[in-house]
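Action item from last week, closing it out:
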Amino acid sequence: MYDISTRKRALTLLAQGRSLNSVSRETGISRAAIRAWQGRLEPLPRMTAPPPEPPADDHAYAYLLGLYLGDGCLSPHPRGGYYLRIACADAWPGLIRQCREAITKVRPGVGVYTLQKQGCVMVTSYWRHWPQLFPQHGVGKKHERHIELDGWQQAIVDTHPWEFIRGLIHSDGCRITNWTTRLVNSERKRYEYPRYFFTNLSGDIIRLFTDALDRVHVEWKASGPHISIARKASVALMDAHVGPKH
């Protein structure tokens, strides 16, 4: 995808009387692309229709999308195709199992295997068209580039918000028990209360998470890249639909 300044430069050279061939040679841009820009300078809108091979299971995809945005990546194979890799901590064997199950539901028939790393397992699957299902794939770290959902992805998340939230919590979140003390009748007593945390350096992913929380009426508070869910009613909702890792 060429930016507007590159497109304008190529068209300026054409306006100076240069041929398509000479402009193409100088800029390294194909003649077909330059010819198309003569009719439309702005890039076409980002595709929001479902990909040619949509997810086989939207419920599982919403969960897998949350895992991918938190701890996933796509890696190209030298001979074509891509590896989908989701990092899952060794401490959570249930998460590893759920991740594998989600991949096989989203793309029945694909191979899924685990690769042991220090302290974690990479749940891995090869398929030529993973970027169709995860168009957020790109060069560099997620928090260093813009992340947004395509229209068809947003529709799935809107339909299955709890699965998306669960995937994000299972990747970059946790459920912990806090405690405090209070004086009751001159006696100091200890009180414990649960809360959920989610941490991500990408402001875009934080926004996707909190938008989903708003949709299911979960109250939250933000502190930089950290999202806290501590109100009793909201924690109860999270326990009913997400629960701790295992």
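Closing note: Residues 58-71 form the longest helix (14 residues).
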